[in-house]
Amino acid sequence: MDETVFDKEADAPMPHSCNLIIDSCCDLPFETVDRDGVELIEFPYVMSDGEHADDLYRASSAHDFYQAMRDGEEPTTAQVPVPVFRAAFERAVESGVPTVYLSFSSGLSGSFDAAVLVHGQIMAEHPDAELYLVDTHLASVAEGLLVHEALRQRDKGLTARELAQWAEEARYFVDAEFMVEDLDALRRGGRIPGSVAYAGSKLDVKPMLTIAPDGKLSLAGVARGRKKGIKQLAEYYQKRVAESVPGQCVVVAGADCPKDVGRLKEALGKVDDSILFLESSIGPVIGSHVGPGMIAVVFWGGDKREDMSVADRIARKVKQG
């Protein structure tokens, strides 16, 4: 089913028991998250003309951003400033409504650590406040799928505490694979050595990345050319998707490559013709590190913790105490 989903069961205002704070690294269309009781924290990024806010492409287009990169722009990113977290958390407490913050992965940014610091200060000042922080261990539209479903669960009546507990478990079932086109962007971000970027470009090799249970990027393999890469994305979905549920929401997204996103949707539709697609664009913060041409598929899969080695599972249990 070739349909774009903006899951607005709550087009008309519905009562809910909690509010959400989300951040712009979820890379969802603004209209999907423009809901009552949802606050957006905008990550900053810097271009040659100064600092910008990642506002989910309300002020400028994805095409303009990625075209600037094609023309030589090398944007950089930064953490969310502490005062931004403090202002958002103070508003949440002052509202009197229990609130959950779903954060960009701590495995890819230090922003969650800043949020934890501010949260501790706020809770010391307001010990009775209900303000929960969840490290999603996800990024980009993978984080977006969790946010998308969290909104639905909130509207179905979960309390803030229940929603935080749900997210802490559900994050391990969000599966994603990304194909990266711009190896030089990965090199600039320190993800791969310069020699690998050079060789990969000459051989037309496309890295296939996933998100590990700890929220860090993991190399899943490579593809020789975009056509084969799109085929591999569809095969990854077919292999790892959870037990099929008719009308399941699957997120497809690209970094200014709409034709390839269309090809990916077509390939996925051949695997499962009941999919409801949520289509989006990779935002400027993530895009600064992956460059134009990245394409992604995100869906509900199995428990990613089962993919961990025995040694890593033991280490995780020790760390959790």
Automatic annotation (TrEMBL):
<keyword id="KW-0446">Lipid-binding</keyword>
<dbReference type="InterPro" id="IPR003797">
    <property type="entry name" value="DegV"/>
</dbReference>
<dbReference type="InterPro" id="IPR050270">
    <property type="entry name" value="DegV_domain_contain"/>
</dbReference>
<dbReference type="GO" id="GO:0008289">
    <property type="term" value="F:lipid binding"/>
</dbReference>
<dbReference type="Pfam" id="PF02645">
    <property type="entry name" value="DegV"/>
</dbReference>
<dbReference type="InterPro" id="IPR043168">
    <property type="entry name" value="DegV_C"/>
</dbReference>
<protein>
    <submittedName>
        <fullName>EDD domain protein, DegV family</fullName>
    </submittedName>
</protein>
